[in-house]
UniProtKB/TrEMBL annotation, chains A, B:
BP GO annotations: chorismate metabolic process; L-phenylalanine biosynthetic process
GO cellular component, one term: cytoplasm
Keyword Disulfide bond: no
Occurrences of domain Prephenate dehydratase (ranges): 97-272
Pathway linked to the protein: Metabolic intermediate biosynthesis; prephenate biosynthesis; prephenate from chorismate: step 1/1; Amino-acid biosynthesis; L-phenylalanine biosynthesis; phenylpyruvate from prephenate: step 1/1
A GO MF term: prephenate dehydratase activity
Protein name, UniProt field: Bifunctional chorismate mutase/prephenate dehydratase
PANTHER family: PREPHENATE DEHYDRATASE P PROTEIN, PREPHENATE DEHYDRATASE-RELATED
Record's catalysed reaction(s): chorismate = prephenate; prephenate + H(+) = 3-phenylpyruvate + CO2 + H2O
SUPFAM superfamilies: ACT-like, Chorismate mutase II, Periplasmic binding protein-like II
Keywords, sorted A to Z: Amino-acid biosynthesis, Aromatic amino acid biosynthesis, Cytoplasm, Isomerase, Lyase, Multifunctional enzyme, Phenylalanine biosynthesis
Taxonomic classification: Bacteria, Pseudomonadati, Pseudomonadota, Betaproteobacteria, Nitrosomonadales
Location of the ACT domain: 284-361
Location(s), subcellular: Cytoplasm
Length: 365, 365
C-alpha cells in the first residue's frame, strides 16, 4: 500500500518523524532569529545614531561560524545564511543603501548581496564614478566597485578614484567569475570574430588561441555591446555572462571559457570610514614616488623591516602632481596594529605622498 | 573617555552584553541549521529518488512560521529567511534547476529566488516557450513564468502554452512590480514620446494621462528596446525598471509611476507534477466551449453549486480545435478535496474540453 504521495507506510513513518523534528527546529530558529533582531534593535538604540553596519563585527561572526561549522552545509553556505540573517536584523533598525556598478543582474550586484545580504537598497549606478559620488553626496551609505580580476589585473578607474576620493575602504568581496562564448546560431565552426570587453578577452586569451586561433578579437565598450553585435553578425561570437545570451537571443557555444578556473574579481566596499580591527585585516595604501633608482625599495623597506607581508603591489602612472608613479599596496594587518602603525609612520616620513586608503576585514577565500 | 570606536564606557558594557547574547544565539542557529540540513539528507535518502522539492511542504512551513512570528521581523522577512534555509538544506541533497524568462536581473529572476531561495541553478531563457521546453526536455526541474499582472491582465503566451504542455502548475509566486519613467536628460518638460512594453504602458496609463497628456505612447518589444531608443532621442522617455536607467545612461524622471501601488505580477511554477494538498490551495483549469448562449454558465454551475469560489476567470479565443473559446479558471481548494473533486467530475461530463492544469499552495499575499 502507498499513501497519497506514493510512499510505503514504513517510509512514511520515518519521514513523519524526521519532519516533526524539522518542524521543531524551525520553531526554535524563528524564536532565536526574532530574539536576535530584537537585540540588534537594542544595539542600535545604545549606539544612538552611530552607524549600524560594522564590517569588522560581521566579519568576526562569519569567521567564527565558518570555523565551527560541523557540516553538512558548506562554509560558503553558512556564510551566506548568517549574512542574510544579519542583513534582516540590521534592516529592522535601518536599511543600508549600497551603490554599485549597474545594471542589475551583473557581478557587481552579486558582490553587494554577498557582503550585505538581500535586505538592502541596492542602487544601480551608470559607472564607477557615480558609485563614488553616491556615497560622497550621502545618497548611499556604501559603494561596491570592482578593483581587480585575478587574471587580467587592476580596474584603473577605481584606483584613480580612491586616490582622489575622501571615502575609505571598509571591506573587500571576492567573487568567482565565469565567461561564456555565444553566437547567433551554431558552434565554433565559422566564427571569424570574437567581441568582448577588454577584460573578458584578456581572461579568455589562451582558450581563444587554442580553439579559435584565426578569429579576430575585437574589444568593445561592454559585453552587452558585444552581444548586440554578435546578434547581427552570423560570423561573430561574443564573450559575456550566460544571462546576456538570453537577452540578445544568442546560443551558448561554450561555457566557462575563462583561462583560470579560479578566475575571481575582487571588489572594494567604500564608506565614510574604514573598519575597526577584526583580528584578520588588510590595509590598502597608495604612495607617490619619483622615477628614481631605489625610490620604491626605500618606500617599501619599512614594511619588510617590520615583517609585514604585502599581498598586492601595483604601480600606475600618476595623473597629476609632482610624483611620477603611484604605488598601490595591500598589506596584511590593521593600520592600528602596533607593528604596521610604526611601519606606516616610517613610510610617511620618507614618501613624497602617502594616503592610507583604509583597513578592513580580509574576505573569506 | 571613549573606546576605540568612540563609544562611552557604560554604553560599551551594554553593547558587550548584547553582543555576547547575539554570539550565543548565532552558535545555536548554526547548530540547528546544520542539524536541519542533516535531517533533510535523511529525508532525501528515505525518499530514494523521489523529488526533493515539495511545494506543499515548504508552503506549510512558511505559513506556520509567518503565523507564529513574534516580530520584530516582518512576515515577509521571516518567509525569505526560512526559504533560504530550506534552499540551502535542499541543495545538500540536490541542486534544483529552475528555468525563467531571462535575462538575469529581471522580475522573473526575483520570482525564482522568492520561491526557491538562492541555492538553485537559475537558467535564463530567451522566451516563455524556452522555459517550458527546458522542463519538458529535462534540462530544468521547474520553470517560473509570468502569467498575469494585477493592472493589465493576462500574459497570453503563457496561457496558450499551459494548454498544450504536458507540464502541471505546482506553485504560484506574487511579486510587487514598480515602473520608472526615465530619459536621457531633464525632467517631464519636453517629453513628446514615451516608449515601453505594452504591459508597462498599460500599467501606467493614468499616470501618463495626468502628467504627460500630449506625449505619444509607443509600444516596443521590450523596455530594454525603449531604453535604447530613449537614449538616442532627447524628446523621448521610456518606462522600465530602475536598473535599465543605469544600463542605458538615462536619468530617472519619476519613480513608481504605476497606477496601482499594489501593482503585482503573478508567476506560475511549472513542473512534471502538481503539488499535494497543503491546506490552503488553488486549482487552475481550462475549459473549451462553443460560442453558444448559456454555455459558460452551464460549465461554471457545478463550481457554484459546490460552494467553490473562483479567484480568476479569463476567456481567450482558442487557437485550434472544435471549441471557439477557452476559459481559464482559478478556484480555491485542491483537486483532491472532495467538494472540488465532485464539481470537477461534473464539469468534465459537461465540457467539450477540460484540462486540470494543477493544484498548488496559495502564495502569501
Amino acid at each position: 500500500m502507498k499513501d497519497q504521495a506514493g510512499t510505503r507506510p514504513d517510509v512514511s513513518a520515518e519521514l513523519g518523524a524526521l519532519r516533526a523534528r524539522i518542524d521543531s527546529i524551525d520553531d526554535t530558529l524563528l524564536a532565536l532569529i526574532s530574539e536576535r533582531a530584537a537585540l540588534a534593535q537594542q544595539v542600535g538604540h545604545a549606539k544612538q545614531g552611530e552607524r549600524i553596519y560594522r564590517p569588522e563585527r560581521e566579519a568576526q561572526i562569519v569567521r567564527r561560524l565558518r570555523e565551527s561549522n560541523p557540516g553538512p552545509l558548506s562554509g560558503e553556505t553558512v556564510e551566506r545564511l548568517i549574512r542574510e540573517i544579519m542583513s534582516a536584523c540590521r534592516a529592522v533598525e535601518e536599511v543600508t543603501r549600497v551603490a554599485y556598478l549597474g545594471p542589475a543582474g551583473t557581478f557587481s550586484e552579486q558582490a553587494v548581496h554577498k557582503q550585505f545580504g538581500h535586505e538592502v537598497d541596492a542602487l544601480a549606478e551608470a559607472d564607477i564614478d557615480a558609485c563614488f559620488h553616491a556615497v560622497e553626496t550621502g545618497r548611499a551609505d556604501f559603494a561596491v566597485v570592482p578593483v581587480e580580476n585575478s587574471t587580467d589585473g587592476a580596474v584603473g578607474r577605481t584606483l584613480d578614484l580612491v586616490v582622489a576620493s575622501p571615502l575609505s575602504i571598509c571591506g573587500e568581496v571576492m567573487l568567482p567569475i565565469h565567461q561564456t562564448l555565444m553566437r547567433k546560431h551554431g558552434d565554433l565552426d565559422g566564427i571569424r570574430r570574437v567581441y568582448g570587453h577588454a577584460q573578458s578577452l584578456a581572461q579568455c586569451q589562451h582558450w581563444l588561441s587554442r580553439h579559435l586561433p584565426d578569429a579576430e578579437r575585437v574589444s568593445v565598450v561592454s559585453n552587452s555591446e558585444g552581444a548586440r553585435r554578435a546578434a547581427a553578425e552570423p560570423v561573430a561570437a561574443t564573450l559575456g555572462s550566460e544571462a546576456a545570451a538570453a537577452l540578445y537571443g544568442l546560443s551558448v557555444v561554450a561555457a566557462r571559457v575563462e583561462d583560470e578556473a579560479s578566475n575571481t574579481t575582487r571588489f572594494l566596499v567604500l564608506g565614510a570610514h574604514d573598519a575597526a580591527p577584526s583580528g584578520r585585516d588588510k590595509t590598502s595604501l597608495v604612495m607617490g614616488a619619483k622615477n628614481q633608482p631605489g625610490a620604491v625599495v626605500k618606500l617599501l623597506q619599512p614594511l619588510a623591516d617590520a615583517g609585514v607581508s604585502m599581498s598586492k603591489f601595483e604601480s600606475r602612472p600618476a595623473r597629476s602632481g609632482t610624483w611620477e608613479y603611484l604605488f598601490f599596496v595591500v598589506c596584511e594587518g590593521h593600520r592600528k596594529d602596533a607593528r604596521l602603525a610604526a611601519a606606516l609612520a616610517e613610510i610617511d616620513s620618507r614618501a613624497a605622498f602617502l594616503k592610507i586608503l583604509g583597513s578592513y576585514p580580509a574576505a573569506s577565500a
